[in-house]
Write a structure and sequence with these properties.
By secondary structure, the chain is an alpha+beta fold. It is about 55% helix and about 15% strand. It contains four helices and six strands. The protein is elongated, with a radius of gyration of 22 Å.
Length: about 190
Amino acid sequence: MATTFDLEDIKRRMQGAINAFKHDLGSLRTGRASPNLLDPIQVDAYGTAMPITQVATVSVPEPRLLSVQVWDRSMVSAVEKAIRESDLGLNPQTEGQVIRLRIPEMNEQRRKEMVKVSHKYAEEARIAIRHVRRDGLDLLKKLEKDSAISEDDSKRHAEQVQKATDQFVAEVETLVVAKEKEIMHV
């Protein structure tokens, strides 16, 4: 099977890195309630670890309040325990099948720590995008070496890959700046 160069595949993989970055940013605590905040929490349900979204509905009735509606009454204590043991620092209050989570105001030091974490996530996303770029450029070099494409085509495609890389890295920068403003907003 002959290998071919596909710029759309490279862009799709770079977009995948952006989507993973957005997901990571969504799970960062900003002092405002967000259903994504509970995404990383795994509940020990029916003998296996399940995401909290598979045993309950998470909603935001107020800006600083999360409401977790557990579907199965027998799972309420397991969900409460998972939230309590998570590293989010939230204290669940149970009312029947509904668990309420007040999101406390973050202090300045905690906000700065969250900004550092968001920058770490941004760097991981940039690295993932650069890995995709490297894979694309390596493929171009291989195709050129095997005489599957001309040197001019290789250079043209390499410029397109670099242009896509610059575009996606700029998108990461835009997202991290917006998240930093959101975190630092009191």
